[in-house]
Amino acid sequence: MEGFRNYTDSALLELLKSGNSRAFDEIYHRYWPVMHRLVSRMLGDGDLANDAVQDVFVSFWERRSTLSDNLSLKHYFYAAARNQVLMRIRSSQIASRYLETLRNVLQSGTPAADESLLNAELVARFEAELQHLPPKMREAFELSRIAENSYKEIAEKMGISDNTVKHHISDALKILRKKLTTFIFLFL
Fold first, then answer.
1. Alpha carbons 164 and 48: distance in angstroms, whole number
2. Where is the RNA polymerase sigma-70 region domain (predicted)?
3. Rounded Cα distance, 5 and 22, in Å
4. Taking the model in full, what pTM does it have?
5. Which of 44, 55, 58, 164 could tie 160 with a disulfide, CB 3.0–4.6 Å?
6. Range 153-183 burial, b when 16+ CB lie within 10 A, else e
7. CB 176 within 8 A of CB 129
8. pLDDT > 90 fraction of the chain, expressed in percent and rounded
């Protein structure tokens, strides 16, 4: 890969478009750190940033043959990172609103008559998906979102690190968001 370090972005892009994976590796190594710092600052979470930046590069690789010859990689990656961040923020906000509404429904137990069936279906789907989570992940999620414990409290109860709790909850949200997206949009 050392042979590609002195190549311009344009030259790397040309090589990439012709299928040269080493050119992709150089672009990846050149732009990953900058993008990760940017996305980490925007999301406030290094692990979420890893996922977002990885998604940007996967998409970049998949679209390599259709990229414009005069594309500015710097601008492309900045725009792609910004779009990933916005998408994740929107998804997170939707999931948070859904979970808050679900928590309120579970606590009050008295939704309006026309919402009863939908709420019951949402609760049933949510509970079913919750049961499919790995046991430790499910426990951390329930302690956080349902019992409203802090990460530190959960870590102490489960005998794991705060970081592991954070990973469990983040992964649970990703899984639940993916599984319940259709119902979330119908519900909201």
1. 14
2. 27-92
3. 11
4. 0.50
5. 164
6. ebbeebebeeebbbebbbbbbbbbbebbeeb
7. yes
8. 18
The two three-digit tokens of residue 141, written as one number: 């999620």
* CB count in 10 Å sphere of residue 115: 13
Q: Which SS3 state, helix, strand or coil, does residue 34 take?
A: helix
Locate tokens 């870590």: which residue? Answer: 155
**Residue showing tokens 């859904």:** 98
pLDDT tens track for 84-114: 887 777 666 556 665 666 666 556 655 444 4
User: d(Cα 139, Cα 134) in Å, to the nearest integer?
Assistant: 9
Tally DSSP H helices, then E strands, for the chain: 8, 0
Look at residue 147 in the predicted model and tell me its pLDDT: 72
Chain-centre distance of CA 135, in angstroms? 21
Beta-carbon contacts of 32 under 8 Å, excluding residues fewer than 6 positions away, are: 53, 57
The stretch 117-126 carries a mean pLDDT of: 64
